[in-house]
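Hey L., structure's done. Input below.
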Amino acid sequence: MGIVRHERNGKRLSHVLVNNGTVYVTGQVPADRTQGIAGQTQQLLDRIDQLLGLAGTDKSKILFAQIWLKNIKRDFAAMNEVWEAWVPQDALPARATVEANLAADDILIEIALQATLES
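Output:
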């Protein structure tokens, strides 16, 4: 089948790439950056649901998630509340969360992940 790319963003990237049964979702940042960490996190998770759907999979098949927070001490607990309400408890992925100097001051979170097409 080869590599399948969805939602190309100019000359820089594809938001979703599928290869050999693995789905790669590029780092997602919130569109509405006026919200706090809970709102920004929910935005990203809604967007990830949409992108996984384009690739033919869903959040129950996430293998690994990478989360970057602008301020981990302040935002870790609130982000986790939103994450835990969203992620299927019987399909918890591996995950890493770190603090990072993100691309803009009003971006509080970025999430990238890999999922599978397999059941």
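The chain has one domain: 4-116. Helices lie at 37-55, 72-86.

-- N.
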